[in-house]
Amino acid sequence: MNRMGGTAREPAGLSLKRVHKSYGAHEVLKDISLDIQGGEFVVFVGPSGCGKSTLLRLIAGLEDITAGDVYISDTDVTERDPSDRGIAMVFQTYALYPHMTVAENMGFGLRAARRPRTEIEQKVRQAAEVLRLTDYLDRRPGQLSGGQRQRVAIGRAIVRDPDVFLFDEPLSNLDAELRVGMRIEIARLHQELRNTMIYVTHDQTEAMTLADRIVVLRDGRIEQIGTPSQLYDDPDNVFVAGFIGSPKMNFFKAVVQGADRLRLGETELPCPRTDAAIAGPVILGLRPEDLRVAGPEEPGFPMEVKFSEFLGGTTYVYGEIPGGTGCTVELERSRQARPGTILTLTADIADMRLFDVEGMRIR
Amino acid sequence: MTGTLTAPTPRGGRIRYHRVLFHVTATLVALLFLAPIAWVVLASFRQATDSLKPPLPPWPTDGFTADSYVRLQEFGQSILHYTGNSAFVAIGTAVLTIIVSVLAGYGFSRYRFPLKGLVFVLILSTIMIPFQSILTPLFLLLAKMGLQNKLIGLVLIYTTLQLPFSVFMMRNAFDAVPKEIEEAARIDGMKGIAMLTKVMIPLVKPGIVTVGLFAFLNAWNEFLAALVLLTDQDKFTLPVLMTAVRYGRFGSVDWGAVQAGVMVMMIPCLILFLILQRSYIRGLTAGAVK
Ligand SMILES: Nc1ncnc2c1ncn2[C@@H]1O[C@H](COP(=O)(O)OP(=O)(O)OP(=O)(O)O)[C@@H](O)[C@H]1O
Ligand SMILES: [Mg+2]
C-alpha cells in the first residue's frame, strides 16, 4: 500500500522486444531486448551518445520506433500516444510550464484528461506533501531554485500516477550537494511508491546506489545487464569492467603459461582458475582497490609512481608498469608514495579478472 | 578593529557621474523625440488664421481654441466614422496577421515538410520587394475579386505585406521554446490545437504582441495603398482623410484641421503601446529550463 492515491495495484512491468531505431541511415539502437519486472528500479548507463536518451524516449513514445515492440504490463503500447502509455517522464531541463503555477504544472495532465477538480486538487496536495512543496504551490517555476524546480517536475510525474517513471539525467543540472540530497529523495520515493522506474545517468554513484539492475549500453547495444554488484564483481567484458567502478579498472597485457602461471612482463603471478583451458595472450583486469603493496616474500610486479592524489581516507597513486602501461592503485592513507619510487604490487588471485584479446571475459 | 566601528559608506548617497551623464543624455534624447509631438498638440489648438502663420513660437498666439477639432468633425461623415474605418482595418489586419503568422511560425518551427527551407526563404525574400511596385497588380487582383473600395480588401493587402516579417518573428519565437516543454505536454496528453493554445501560445505571447502591434500600427498609419484603393469618401481611413481635410472650404490649406486629425490618429496608438509594453518587453520563458 503506498501513500499516493491509494491505488494498491500491482506495479507494471515493461519489456522491449528487438527494438531498433535509425535516424536516416544512422542506426542508433540495435536490437535491444530487455525485460523489466514490475517495481524494479533500472538504470541505463553508457558513454555519451550511446543511445540512452533515445531508448528512454522510445519507451515514452516521444520517438517513433523503427522496428520492434514495447510492452507495458503485457500490453503492446508501440503505437500508442505518450499520454496513453501509463508513463511519466522527468527531463534533465525540468521542462516546467513557465506560465503556470506549481500547482497548475502538477495538475496539468489530469486537467487535460478532464478529471474532476477535487481529485486533481487532492492528488496535487498529496504529491506536494511528499516532495515538501506545499509552501510553493502558488509560485511560478521562475521563482523557484533548481532543486525545487526538479521536485516540481517529479511531482508532475507523481500526480500522473504512472505505471512507469522515466528519468533522463534528472539531477545533472544540480550542484553536487543538492544532487546527493535529491538522489536520496528519489530512492525514498521509489521505496514509497514501489513503481517501476527507469533512470538514465552518467553518474556512477547514482547508478550504483539507486539501481536494482543496471543496463550498460554502448553504441546502441546492451553490453551487460545485472545488479550493481554483479557488474562490479563479474563483468562480461573489458568495456563493462572499465565502465563500472571509479577509478577505472587497470588492464594489463599478460600471457598464460602452462596450467596456472600468468606472466606479466618479467613477473610471474598465479593464474586464476577458469572453466575452459586457456593459453597464450590474455588481458588481466585488476581494480585499483584490489591492488596492494606486496609483502617481502610475495611475487609482485613493479610500478613507477608518477603522482598521487590524497583524498582523506585513501590515496590514489598513479604510475606506470614496465612497458609503459598506466596503473592506478588505492593505498591506505598512511602510505607515502613519492614520484619516482618503485612499488611492488600484487593482488589476491580471487580479485583477478581475465579477458581474451577481443575483450570478452574468460570465466 | 576600526573597520567594525566606522559606519559603512552609504552607497546611495554618493553622486555617480556616469549616472548623471546617463540621465542628462536620456532627457535630451527624449526631448528631441517629444518636441514634434508637443508641436502638433499645440498647433492643433490654434485659431484657423493663426495656423497659417509661421510655426514660431509653437504655442497659439491668439489664444487656445478647439475650432480645428470642430472643423475636422464637420468634414464629411463624423470623425468617429473614419476612426471606425481605421480601427476596423487596423484591428482586422492585426488579428488576421496574428492568426496566420502563429500557425505558419509554428509549422515552420516544429514540422518537417518538403522544401521547407526554400519556402521560408521565398516568404522572407518578399520583404525585399518595395510594395509600391506591386500596388498596381494588387489593385487589379482586388478589382477582379470585387474587393476594391472595400475595407476588407485593404485588410487583405496589409496582412499580406505584414506576413513575411511576422512569420519570421513567430518562427523565432517558437524556436526559442524548449522542445522538452512540448514533449512534457505531449506526455500530459496535449496534441494538435490544444497543444498550440494551452501550452505554446502562452509561451510565445511576447512575440504575438510584437507582431500584432506592428501590424496594427502599420495598418493604422498606411497611406498609399489606402489612397489608391479607396475612392468612396465614406470608406476613407484616417490618413486618407487627412489629405481630404487639408483642402478646406475656401481652397486654402487647413493646417489646423490636419493637426487635429494627427492628434486623433496618435492617441489610440499611444494607449495601445502603453497597455502592451509590459508583455512586449517581458520574456515569458525565463525560468522554464535550467
Ligand atoms: N534527432 C536525431 N537525429 C539524428 N540523430 C540523432 C537524433 N537524436 C539523437 N541522435 C543520435 O543518436 C545517438 C544517441 O543519442 P542519445 O541522445 O540517445 O545519446 P545519449 O546516450 O543520451 O547521450 P548523452 O549521455 O550525451 O545524453 C547519438 O549519436 C545522436 O547523435
Ligand atoms: Mg541523453
From TrEMBL, chain B:
It is found in: Cell membrane. GO terms for cellular component: plasma membrane. Residues 83-276 form the ABC transmembrane type-1 domain. Part of the ABC transporter complex MalEFGK involved in maltose/maltodextrin import. Probably responsible for the translocation of the substrate across the membrane. PROSITE patterns: ABC_TM1. One of its GO terms (biological process) is transmembrane transport. This is Maltose/maltodextrin transport system permease protein MalG. SUPFAM superfamilies: MetI-like. Belongs to the binding-protein-dependent transport system permease family. MalFG subfamily. It is a multi-pass membrane protein. The chain crosses the membrane at residues 20-45, 87-106, 118-139, 151-170, 199-220, 255-276. Keywords: Cell membrane, Membrane, Sugar transport, Transmembrane, Transmembrane helix, Transport. Pfam families: BPD_transp_1 (PF00528). It comes from Paracoccus alkanivorans.
